[in-house]
Every structure is written in C-alpha cells, then in structure tokens.
Design a protein that fits this description.
It is built from 16 helices and 20 strands. With about 475 residues, the chain is of the alpha+beta class. It folds into four domains: about 150 residues, no CATH class; about 70 residues, no CATH class; about 170 residues, no CATH class; about 45 residues. Strand 9 and strand 10 form a beta hairpin.
Length: about 475
C-alpha cells in the first residue's frame, strides 16, 4: 500500500482555469442585470467579489480533500466537497496512461497524468491535473508502467526504435490537414456561446444584416469573401496542427508504443501493444497524389477527447510503410493486392450520392441566380462514387483482415481476428436480388467500439469472411 498523496497546490489554479468559462457564463449575465439596476455600484462589486472568493474557497477545499494512492492492486482516488466520492480501479483494467503538461503545469514544472480504462468513455477515468514528475514516475511504477524519466535514461543505454517528425514534415502535415471543417464548426460554436452570454443581441441576425450589405455588389465580391474566409480557416487549421503535433516522437518499447507531441501542451501517451485493436492507414485527398499517408492506431480505452483514434505517425511516405510496420508494429503487414468488390455493386456506388445531389441541384438551379452551377454537385458525387467503388476491397492473410474503403480520403484498416468484438452481415432486398452483402466488424476503442464496414461483397466472399471470423 502507498500513502495517500495530495496534488500540487497549483491544482487549485488549474481547476480555476479549467472552469473559467463556466464561471463567466454564471457571472456575466447576472452582472449585466445588476449593473443596470438601481443598486449602488460598490455593493454590486462587493457581491461579485464575495462570489469569486467563495468560488476560490471551494477550489481550495476541493484540492485539500483530493487524495490518490495504490492499495491492494487498485488505484484509489477520493475527493468531493459536499459529497465524498471514491473511485477504485483495478490495475488490470488500466488500458493506457497519458502524461501531458499544459501552460499551467509547465510554469510550475508539473505534469498532468490521466488514466484510461476500456469502459471509461471519452474522458479519462482518473485525472491528476498537477503532480510532480517524480510523483508521476512513482505512480507509473506502481501501475506497472515504465516511468517517464527512466524511459528517457534507458534509451541511451538500450536504444529503442524511434522516429521524429521533422519541421519540414510538420509543415507539410499542417498545410495538407483536413482541419477546415473543424475551424468552421469552432466558429459556429463560438457564435452560439456569444449569443448565450448576450441573449438580448441576436448574433445571427446581426451577421445576416452584415452579409446582406454585400448582396448587391456582384458575384465577384462573394467569391473574394469566400476565398478570404477559406484562407483564414486554412491558416488557423495549420496553426492548430503545428501546435498539436510539433515535437512529435514515436518510440517502440518492448511491450508498448510511447508517443510524445505538442508545442504548448506537451503530451505523452503510453499504449501497450496488447491493447492495440487495429491500424488505420489514411490517404487524405491532398496527400494521396503525393504518396503520403497518416497512420492511426485504434486502442482499447484510449483516444483523444473527441473520441478520435490516436495518431501513430502524422506523415509518412507510402513507400516506407512496409519498413515502418516491420520496425514498430511487426504484428501487422500491408497487402499489395486486395480482392475488389463485386461488379454488381458498381451501380449502387455510382448512384448512392448522385441521386440526392440531383434532388438538391434541380430546385436550386431554378430558384437561385447562377443556380446552374449547382449541377457540379451531382457530377462530383458521381465521380466520387466511381472512385469509392474502385478503391474498396478486402484481403485475408492468416489472422489479419485488411479492409479498404473511401469516403473522401482512402482508409485501409488492418485488424486481427482475436480483436473482433462482433460481426454483422447485412442484405437488403436490392442486394438480395444481386447477390450482394454488406458487413461490419466492431473492435474495442475509446468510444466503446469502432465500426469497420464494407458494402458490395458477393456471396462467396461473405462466406469466406464469416469463416475467418
């Protein structure tokens, strides 16, 4: 048994920073109402200061009552101000441990340690937001994981395979990332939050009035505005990728992969090899023409906060993939030739997006000026379907199954038979008439399960995959 330990006092600051948004959402609307009331300003300011003092006092008491220790092969955490809470995690349930250091931690020379379990969902089961590096090392030893300092020291005496992401590779990764959609969604979320803070202001109506002022200035103005927004979103996407993946380092230990990354917030995650469920080889739309790929690992109990798979390596020439897997994941092997889909599935892939796109383009072309440009949508949908059919396929090699498909980028998934959680074979009436099937395989991941599916295999192929499972 280890003695109960307390977080570093900086955990109070980390707690306040983490909840600053909630505090603003609570105080700001009330402050607006109070300052517009006939009450004296000194009373209002005093009342707000009292609330802030109570909030800081709550954070201090929360820190004082927070304890963690290892007892009887369990990681135990006890916390709570008004209600006492206890979390017990058997050591064998721990899937991975992530160590990171944000701005607040780095100021005080601390780290943040998060423990993931298979059933923990997107959030970490246990989060220790402010502990010393020595405490993190001691705890990792008690969790039967390699301490951070020891791992770095041993790398000189017993060199382990490692690969770094160079600055040139980082800039190529950032400039070809698919982060534009994330930026636009983030902007939408920001607008919605502003509208909640200022409910009397209709932000969307104000934005509409602003845009309507340019409505009569011709299509050229709209095109220029769209391009400027696109460039701004692209630059923000690049910045986010550089900050997230800067300093990327992959190390293969005997029984685990250790991934470090981040410029402002340093992160290090240790993933046991036995927890790896599948490997994804992603060829993005902008990267595939240059023969570049991104590797992801599907791991039980680990993923980022949005549930996405862990980036195993951000940018790799496709020609180096065989050598990369041989060094870091020899348990997996890429196949040069795959079994394509049935020819009977070709029509389905051509029409699945083309018909809905036509249903949108026809009324748009009638109702809007320059609406005939909307017919580019079904044309693009048709060629996307053709490419999806050409790229899709599968291959069995011993206990490994390869599944390849495309939405926009092409994704090749490698999984082992012993990692399959469930298998489903589907056939709708149209598929039955053509003798086609669709299958989906579920493997464990941070989301509780990752689904790998393929549509358009024939009867004989479906029997072979069922026998393999």
């Amino acid at each position: 048994m280890s003695d109960p330990e307390r977080l570093h006092p900086a955990a109070v600051l980390e707690y306040l920073i983490k909840n600053i948004r909630s505090l603003i959402e609570i105080l700001l609307p009330g402050s607006v109402v109070l300052f517009s009331s006939p009450l004296r300003r000194e009373w209002i300011i005093g009342f707000i200061l009292i609330l802030l003092g109570l909030y800081i006092g709550f954070a201090i008491i929360y820190w004082l009552r927070y304890r963690y220790y290892v007892y009887n092969d369990e990681l135990r955490v006890e916390y709570g101000v008004f209600t006492s809470k206890k979390t017990y995690i058997p050591l064998e349930r721990i899937q991975s441990v992530q160590v990171s250091a944000g701005v607040a931690q780095r100021i005080f020379g601390l780290v943040k340690l998060e423990v993931q379990t298979a059933g923990g969902g997107l959030a970490a089961e246990v989060s220790l937001p402010a502990i010393t590096l020595q405490q993190a090392n001691v705890l990792q030893e008690r969790l039967h994981l390699p301490p951070i300092q020891r791992m770095e020291e041993e790398s000189s005496d017993h060199p382990s395979p490692e690969r770094k992401l160079s600055w040139k590779e980082l800039m190529i990764t950032a400039s070809t990332s698919n982060g534009l959609g994330v930026v636009f969604l983030g902007a939408t979320a920001l607008i919605s939050q502003v509208e909640q803070i200022f409910p009397d202001r209709n932000i969307y109506e104000m934005l509409g009035h602003f845009l309507s002022g340019y409505g009569n200035k011709g299509i050229l103005v709209w095109v220029v505005m769209f391009l400027l927004l696109l460039i701004m979103a692209w630059l923000l996407s690049m910045l986010g990728t550089v900050l997230s993946l800067g300093g990327f380092l992959l190390i293969r230990e005997e029984d685990r992969l250790v991934i470090s990354r981040g410029l402002i917030e340093k992160k290090q995650v240790s993933i046991p090899l036995k927890r790896i469920q599948a490997i994804k080889i992603v060829e993005g739309v902008l990267r595939q023409p240059f023969g570049l790929i991104t590797l992801h690992v599907v791991s039980a109990g680990h993923g980022d906060k949005s549930g996405r798979d862990v980036v195993l390596f951000p940018l790799l020439p496709k020609k180096d993939l065989d050598e990369f897997l041989h060094i870091y994941l020899p348990e997996f092997a890429i196949e040069k030739e795959i079994i394509p889909l049935s020819a009977a599935a070709k029509t389905r892939y051509r029409l699945i997006y083309t018909i809905p796109a036509l249903l949108i383009a026809i009324p748009v072309s009638i109702l809007l000026p320059y609406g005939f440009f909307s017919f580019l949508l079904p044309i693009g949908a048709f060629f996307l379907g053709v490419q999806q059919y050409k790229d899709a396929g599968w291959k069995i090699n011993g206990d490994q199954l390869l599944v390849r498909s495309r939405m926009f980028g092409r994704v090749t998934t490698l999984l082992k038979r012993q990692r399959v959680q469930s298998f489903q074979l589907r056939q709708n009436p149209l598929q039955r008439r053509k003798g086609l099937h669709a299958f989906s395989i579920m493997v464990a991941s941070s989301l509780g399960g990752t689904n790998i599916s393929l549509n358009g295999i024939n009867e004989q192929d479906s029997v072979e995959i069922i026998d393999w499972v």
